[in-house]
């Protein structure tokens, strides 16, 4: 367990995980890893939900093709009931494609406190220090205690105007600002925009509590807006990335591409290219 | 014929071709056309050779997916022997996908002068004002006369260190600089780099004679370099695009992607995204 956690922590710190995985995996991993971080300025990742119609092998093949090295793990790829051996095999599979699973979620935990306990237990066993979650508001104090107990951060995901609980970043920030500093946001910039809230402004306001970003663009700043390729929507991505630099954001930027979900590679690849182009040109 | 030429010329000038094509095609065409030019700053295109393993329908489907609106027409998509009706149908097919065929080539014409005559006749019938060609050096004076006679520009393509005729931009510039001003280069920045020649420097030097660009990146500045996704090679693309702005380049930037040629969409899409990201971030 300690080895696994060390592995992941080193990943998060940007240090090669060369010591923990097999030789050929190591070469693939450390090679792509370093170049990706260096080239992006920011660590580009993929939110697992982008691959909802694909198993982990298909997903990793796409990530390898795009040279993207961080995955936010969804439970359809690594179920909560996974054994230690299954978790270990999963990480090794990722490493063989040069990928680090850096967080789990989004996980819904609105039915019972047991779901919260399960999520923290799962994150600990997976060896990540970040959970993306959708909890009930009345459980936030309980979750805040858990983040301290496990030393695992908890990022609440905002889901746009239809979301009665967390429509935007502000709604989450107001709820977590006085809780444990490990309580924060997975900032879905697309859903924030769909709720009519400016992503760059909110990044500036809430960056100390933003632990992860679902990086995307949307076709309109209303509930009718849908995900589109990163360079084709209403969010000014160059301005947003400038803001990330300004506030010193050091989390991941994980693309969540909810268009063409049964054939997402072209749109994801275009988005990856756009992100890197903006990042390189404004470095 | 006049209608067809007017159509293409308007395309080159960046004016909507709404008047010449059918209603549904028109909507697709003018819509994407305007947004692409506005978003890119430069007109992004695809060099037909990128689609060597695909027919025109498959190629256009990929272009539509990437929202790219200019195609340099290769003869495997529109043979030199095409009839007026076939050419017309081809243009209508392109327009239905929002695409303008802005030039023809590269066309080899090293075997006989008849190939040169055929190429100019073909370009005239296709209605484009630009031929990308690979001619013999001893025919350049003859071609220069043809460019004046047809008022069609002729851009010679450089093909790297293996190319005994035109390894780099300098080799072409020296040959055309005193010929008709319609004689120039299709600047293959990747092959120029493979020949150890700096693309941005040569863009600055020769921009008045650069009529088209095979836009790409390569893995090494030697003959062993191969095409790679735009953001992953040794050419500093942000610096190159800055140079394009500085010299006021107003030709097309046509991606020629010679990697994964049997499955090019992901790499092309990443390159399209990178181009637009750099362009948007540095606008």
Pattern of helices and strands of chain A: HHEHEHEHEHEHEHHEEEHEH
Instruction: Name the largest protein-protein interface in this structure.
Output: A-B, 29 and 29 residues
First and last CA, distance of chain A: 38 Å
Which structural class do the helices and strands of chain A define? alpha/beta
User: Can you count the beta strands of chain A?
Assistant: 10
* Gross CATH architecture of chain A: Alpha-Beta Barrel
Q: Taking all residues together, what is the mean pLDDT of chain A?
A: 88
Q: Report the portion of residues of chain A in β strands.
A: 15-25%
**How is the CATH topology of chain A named?**
TIM Barrel
Q: What oligomeric state do the depicted chains represent? A: homodimer
Describe the structure.
Two copies of one chain form a homodimer. Chain A has 283 residues and is of the alpha/beta class. Chain A is 46% helix and 18% strand. An eight-stranded parallel barrel of chain A has the order 1-2-3-4-5-6-7-10, surrounded by seven helices. The longest helix of chain A is centred in the first third of the chain and has 18 residues, at 23-40. The interface between A and B is medium-sized, with 29 and 29 residues.
